[in-house]
Amino acid sequence: MLARRAETPYDLPRCVVRPHTTEQVAQILEWADRTRTPVVPYGGGSGVSEGVVAGGAVVVELRALNEIIDFDEKSRLVRTQTGVLGPDLTKALKSWGQTLGHEPQSLRISTVGGWIATRASGQLSARYGGIENMVAGLEAVVPGGRVLRSKTKPRSATGPDVASLMIGSEGTLGIVTEATLRVSPLPTEAADRCVRFQHMADGVAACRKLAQSELRPLLVRLYDPEDSAIFLRNHPHETPGTLLLLSFSGPGAGRRADAAVELSSGIPGDNDLVAHWWEHRNDAVDELMTLMAGEGILGPHALVDTIEVSGTWSDLRAIYHSMKEGLGNVADIAACHLSHVYPDGGCLYFTLASACDDDAAAAETLERWWDTGMTACLAAGGSISHHHGIGRRKARWMRAELGEWWELLAAVKKAFDPNGIMNPGALGL
To answer: Rounded CA gap, 391 and 305, in Å?
Structure first.
């Protein structure tokens, strides 16, 4: 987006190919491996971690693999090609009374294959888990053109789950062409609650209690004062502060929602704010594009980005404060919300913004943000990505993230892709 705004030329792919079948994907990867031609898989193009850098490579655009093949009502499994966009899968599942429960902010413009490749997690992960919890089987094509299909199963104890290496591989090992996904019935009851706190620490403690309770929340989002100011920008009557949005679904949703408010020890807020979030939860995609085009309130050389990390409840306080302080020194705005929760920890999602003097200064500021954020995260014991993936943006910190496991990842890459043709540079490989 910076290059486009500054009208700076950037490298184009050698060509773009659009396969319509798994067999055609196999033909492409057989040819590419034989000719040592780099290949970059492309789904919806919504990634924000530089997972797609196409200069000099052949881009395999997968949107023509867009068939929803089968729905197994008895087993609650849907089999689909991976070029299917989020709204198309959602519509089909709704016609069968089902939901995947995977609701990333990019739902409108992202694909099933992209979710799997980046090990994505949606906004409702507190209830449904991440994409890795939904994959029951998959089909992938690896360099040389070999097609690999895993058995669809609820679980097995047949050695390491080798097929799951494709989940989060970001196109570095092969191309996932089909997936069988676990789905759930659409909920029949729903209840929303808003809770306020005096301090962020009190809100985090409440989120931990909820994640470790038996209340089964659908949505848990805790905004710090700066991020709540962004969320409440169209609600001038609301005072920014530490703000918790909760949703519950299924039988007894209202009862569980009331119990959650009591458990939180917070102050009840305006529940209509949760309905506002549901209606506008994905607006940030368009708002980001507007700001980065230089057409928003930050001026013609605006810089906006997000950094999401994760950590255990024991480490989360240190991660939040160290990153908040560091990023606050290099960004005009450094806002944060707790976006995903689990019994053992959660995800901190930082939104950063600055009004820069020119595009060169914006590029320099961007590097300072990432150096500061990643260094602080690792020093405090956090993980450098919760759901956006690594791409090339975070690649230089992968050795520090994985430690001794890095060499094993490199060996896996060598085994799958000995000639190094698959998305070179992603994951730092």
So the answer is: 15
- The number of CA neighbours under 13 Å toward the Cβ of 282 is 13
Contact by Cβ (8 Å): 406, 398: yes
Neighbours of 155 (CB within 10 A): 7
Output DSSP code: residue 256.
H
pLDDT at residue 8, rounded to an integer: 86
Q: Rounded CA gap, 407 and 427, in Å?
A: 13
* CA-closest candidate to residue 17, choices 52, 62, 84: 62
What is d(CA 303, CA 292) in angstroms, rounded to the nearest whole number?
6
pLDDT band for position 127 (50/70/90)?
Answer: very high
DSSP of 265-309: T-EE--THHHHHHHHHTTTHHHHHHHHHTT-STT-TTEEEEEEEE
Look up residue 352 and give its DSSP letter: E
Asked whether 92 and 67 are in contact (CB, 8 A), the reply is no
For 358-414, give the DSSP string.
SHHHHHHHHHHHHHHHHHHHHHTT-BS-SSS--TTTTGGGHHHHHTTHHHHHHHHHH
Q: Which residues contact 233 (CB under 8 A, 6 or more apart)?
A: none
Flag whether pLDDT at 286 surpasses 90: no
Arithmetic mean of pLDDT over the chain:
96
Is the confidence at residue 283, as pLDDT, over 90?
no
Q: Residue 314 in 3-state DSSP?
A: helix
Q: What pLDDT, in 10s, does the model give residues 288-306?
A: 889 999 998 999 999 999 9
In order of 18, 225, 350, the CA distances from 241 in angstroms are 48, 4, 16
How many CB atoms are located within 10 Å of the residue 423 CB?
A: 30
Using 50, 70 and 90 to split pLDDT, how confident is the model at 360? Answer: very high
